[in-house]
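Thread amino acids onto this structure.
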């Protein structure tokens, strides 16, 4: 399962992808950030984030996308920008029909370090260890994106399989080579066609 994590932000939007499954070693696919200039107009910054995430989706081709769930902070201006960037990430994934999961920071911290109050340095250290990297991913936004992806691989694998099964059930294949015969609506049933391979009595 390949998951792309997105740590939303207007100035730096962390993006990272990992591949693996619960109970098996994880591997790094790619990691980086999508940046926009703080002096740009808001609409232009959102367009830049959208373009950057679309490029990542094209290159990484994930099976699912995990985005940090934005929670209330004292700095309303900061949380608004973060929420807007998160919405762009969700939109880009949904437009491609990709499953999207939202994980809170405490969920990610608990999944990665065992403590819901871990700091960024602890998260970065565990991400480095779990992915067997030689150095900690920088900036912290990139490490947080990888932590989101790892969290979803461990916690969202079953949810992804269920969502895939439900999607297949709602949209069954239409190219069945052996479609069922339509039921008779009126009149007596047709006599069976003799099978040439079946012996018949003489008379």
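Threaded sequence (203 positions):
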């Amino acid at each position: 399962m390949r998951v792309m994590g997105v740590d939303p932000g207007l100035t730096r939007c962390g993006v990272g992808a990992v591949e693996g499954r619960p109970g098996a070693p994880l591997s790094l696919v790619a990691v980086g950030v999508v940046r926009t200039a703080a002096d740009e107009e808001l609409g232009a910054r959102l367009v830049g984030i959208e373009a950057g995430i679309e490029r990542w989706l094209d290159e990484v081709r994930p099976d699912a996308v995990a985005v940090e769930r934005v929670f209330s902070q004292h700095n309303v201006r900061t949380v608004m920008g973060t929420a807007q960037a998160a919405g762009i990430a969700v939109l880009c994934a949904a437009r491609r029909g990709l499953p999207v999961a939202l994980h809170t920071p405490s969920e990610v911290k608990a999944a990665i370090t065992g403590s819901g109050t871990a700091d960024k340095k602890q998260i970065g250290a565990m991400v480095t260890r779990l992915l067997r990297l030689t150095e900690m991913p920088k900036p912290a936004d990139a490490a947080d994106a990888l932590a989101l992806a790892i969290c979803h691989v461990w916690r969202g694998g079953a949810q992804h399989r269920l969502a895939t099964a439900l999607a297949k059930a709602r949209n069954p294949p239409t190219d069945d080579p052996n479609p069922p015969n339509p039921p008779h609506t009126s009149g007596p049933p047709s006599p069976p066609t003799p099978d040439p391979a079946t012996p018949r009595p003489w008379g």
